[in-house]
Fold:
Amino acid sequence: MTSRVVRACYAVWILLITSLYYALPDDHLYTWAALGYSSAVAVLVGIRIYRPAQRLPWYLISAALATFTTGDSWYNLVLALGEQPGFPGLADVFYLLVYPLLTTALLLLIRARSGGGDNRAALLDGLVPTVGMGLLAWVYWIAPFTRSTDLSLLEKIVSIGYPLGDILVIAMILRMLTAIGKRPRALSSLTAAMVGLLISDIFYGQSQLRAEWSLGGPVDLGWIVFYAGMGYTALRPSMLGLAEPAPHARAVIGRHRLIWLTGAALIAPAVLMLEDVQGHDVEVARGGIVDAPVIAAAATVMFLLVLARVSGLAMAQRQAVARERALREAGALLVRANSVEEVAGALRDAVDRLMPADCAYHLDVVPPSPGTAEASVQLRDAAGLPDGLGSGGFRTVLYLTQPLSDDRHGTMILGAPENVLHAVRPSLETLAAQVDAVIERIYLSAEVSRRDSEAYFRTLIQNTADVILIVEDDDTVRYASPSAVKLFGAIITAGTPLTGLFTPDSQDGLTEVLDRLRRGHGELDGIELAAHGSGRRRVEVECDLRDLREDPTVRGLVVTMRDVTERRRLEDDLTHQAFHDSLTGLANRVLFRNRLEQAFMVAERDGATLGVLFVDLDDFKDVNETLGHGVGDQLLITVAQRISAIIGAGSTAARMGGDEFAILIEQSHSADAADDAAARIVAALEAPIEVADGEGNTHLVSGKVSVGVATNRDADGSTELLRHADLALYLAKGMGKGSWQRYQSDLHHEMVQRLEMRTQLHEAIEGEQFVLQFQPIVEIGASRVSGVEALVRWQHPARGLLGPFHFVEAAEENGAIVGIGNWVLREALRQFAEWQAADPDTTLRYVSVNVSPRQFRTGDFVDQVRDALATTGARPEWLLLEITESLVLRDADKVVQDLRSLRALGVRVAIDDFGTGYSSLSYLRQMPVDVLKLDKSFIDDVLTSRQQHALVEAIVTLAANLDLDVVAEGIEEPGQRAALDAMGCRYGQGYHFAKPLWPADIPPMTSTSPALLSA
Structure:
């Protein structure tokens, strides 16, 4: 029996049962059950006949029909027994189960039809009318139930469940209708069935609300259509199309779909208008348009959905434009291709341009294979690919084949998500057509080139700079290209022995190469030999050899030679430059490390001693800054020459960079060899060195060096040996320079601690581990605190409170002093401003802050001070900056300029530790300073030394004449205070007055009525 006969029998049966249903009202129980269950059976029959790949959705549809019929049969049975079915009752349970079964089935069909992917455009097109219908259902179907006073809460929930279920099912149908591509015919009968269900449920709900429901009325026709349509859909052959992936097409909005979406989007304003047309009295009775929030929400959702749809169209348009542009660019790449390999490369580039930027894909361009194939681009399942070809883990691929000449064909496999493959397939088909034309052009061009190749080769050989020789089996030359005259200085005639063209030291190598070539070792390239050039000069040549004895056009060995003498010379020069210092000619760091590693392994093997010296010029920076880099370079050259003369040819000297040298003392059986070399180098460079400055002038400069010595006896490797020598050099510099020191194991521990200290200093700045103490500065005569000096302390997390002695030197070395100094400046000003705000009548007039030379020389130090004043709200006159005398030794003009800028702000400047550095009375006249701070060393002997007393008194008198204030540091005894007071020194500080104090201890000492300090 054919499927058409089955459908006809089913249609006749449905018409017969429907007629009996309306003709025999008393037999509704039996006729309605026969109608419903027969539709469920029809679905199972359709599954049996067509065997769809996706059977679960149809089983769920059959179960939904059977469930629906069971609910109806229970309802009819209660009526037949003379009772009135309760609401809600058991029948409602069966009815409500229908909707999740139908929804699940339709979702499975939708997913199967979309190929497992997402169709955003179809989803949006389906959601817009769904929201519109949902709004209508709410206003005219669901809302009346919610406002009914005659229904209980359970009755309302069950009543609302029907329209919600219908809306859910209709949403699925709309999603199927809006899918892009040709719709299966079975979709029309499926849609009709769902519409019948919706219509009957609407009328059923309204009649239930008005208590007017009666069995056997016209409302039942919608359910009859539902039963009949579902069964008929399953019996149609096109039911298979509902679960088959739809062909991918570009997302567009046609005229009909646009009208449909526009009408759906206008539902919300139409409902709102109808609500208004109902009249003002109805609105008042309801308390206003009670559905207004729902209408507004639905309108908003539909607006957003339409906006998303428009956005999707815009994005699709942009993608189409991008693909067209990529296709043009890909075509340009193909046009430039001149071989099949270049076509393959251009094809790879083209696919890369065509694929979306954020999409992962797999591309495999298979080398040409034997056999013919048609030019095609097919969408294939990855499981069906030929053996040896992969898809990169993707389930679907585009399989592109392209015929080539000589009974060969090319293959390309592109694996990606299926929706991406659908999108790029048209572009690849266009590209394949271009590839076909390009390959045809390539082969035509190749044919033309082949015909001209003989003439081209003849011309090429006549004019090439390389020498081409054809050698017979007896190693004589049968043919020599004209360029041989230029290389050898004479015409090479036929029969000339090949070995006579090369130098004696290349004879063995040439014989070996020819033997290897004749034994079938393939092509030999880059063979380096030496030949007799013009005038019997030695010429370095590079040879390529080919065995073409089987080629009927050659029948011999082909030797191609090129003169590489100049290139070898340049390579040697470059190699020397790569491993030697350009200024001194010594080895550089790379060569030194290579030789050290080799020497270390040999020394370990032989049990010998290997020494390394690190040499660093003392005060080389001063030479560069005072006399210029030209003099500094001459000094480095002279030092390098003396070092080379001292160590001899058996050792290696290298310049490691700047003014640092390294020396490798080759292995010996004595540990004293390295020490002796270090002592001789220090002694040889102790005397001043006379160097020229390039302008006819000579200068005597210091060539003193510090040397660190280490041997392999204390090291486990070459790297550790270098590190030991560096540590020893550090010790030598710390011992006063101009000396040498040998590595000691305890030195390593101290250096590690110092390096840890440098690292911890940066962490301390970030972790705010620094604190300030303040030492009062007292007016000696009045015993009044007029200022304080800010003293930084480090609250170390492990070692406790540390004074400057423990960390300032390390901070100066690694540059952390700049950050610390900036913090001290800001914190001191902040604290001083806090004191001033707390007690405006305080005796404090200023806070003194020390500035390191490195901090002062930063390019923006003046701006730092200005910013600190502005940030803390401090006045410039509250700040006294203390600088050292050594600061003015270099860049004096720049220092003076910055000091004047600071004083222009209102900040005062003091020279700290005056008299201990390079003191010069001229600085007191030239430098813009306000205060001299006498070092403690002057004050210690002021009571016991008549000369020291006179010197201090002279400095105080001089300062007074220059309008400078003097602060005496380190006052510890009453007699020192009295002597300074008698000299006219106004200010002092020291333990006699107070030790450094915490900020909280300062205000009691600076109130307007302070207790007198110790006298």
